[in-house]
Amino acid sequence: MHEASKDHIHKFMELVRLEKNRTTIADALHKCAQVTLLLGKQELAFIGHDERSTSSNQDNFREVFNLLIKRNDELLLHYNKFSNVFTGQSKTIQNEIIHCVYEYVLDVIKSETNDVSLFSVISDDTTDIVEKSQCAITLRYVKKKIGELKESFLGFHDVSCSKNGKALFSLLTTILDHFNFKTKLIAQCYDGASVMAGHVNGLQQLIRNEAPHAPEYFFPHF
């Protein structure tokens, strides 16, 4: 038989096995999501130094996932049957789940800011573990129904390639466009970047040109 035909049949059989086990695979993915939420909440690393099955201390994701699977005998039985096809523990699956969680959190923040008439933005310089410059962006607003002051973190964004006012302006407005910042932004606070010091071509003035109700504040590092 031609090699391409063998490969096609092999892929088809894998698909058939996945179809037969789609319910238990969905259960496994649910466990993956639970582990992702737990590690994110506790600010724990996903990846370990030794992820081999023979390791006595695999990464946090695998250790917690395996613990949850083993607590359910029926799920464990099914999982062992299809784990040679789908384990749910790959870095690709982990990253996709993290992205889905991020999208959900972002939708919640959008929903909350849709109900408010104003908010402020806080941007701070930081570095990651390999010393790359990052921009941390946070929104600050009062939730309309309960009057609770809230700060919602929008993420870290790589600015290592360019930190001039125009580049930061492009980054910030791309993010804030989802929140109707031109009419709702009433304050902008920056910390750590000299380019944000408020000169004519700096980020603050560029933002104020788009959102005239947003005065400028700058808090330098000491």
From TrEMBL:
<dbReference type="Pfam" id="PF14291">
    <property type="entry name" value="DUF4371"/>
</dbReference>
<dbReference type="InterPro" id="IPR025398">
    <property type="entry name" value="DUF4371"/>
</dbReference>
<feature type="domain" description="DUF4371">
    <location>
        <begin position="29"/>
        <end position="202"/>
    </location>
</feature>
<protein>
    <recommendedName>
        <fullName>DUF4371 domain-containing protein</fullName>
    </recommendedName>
</protein>
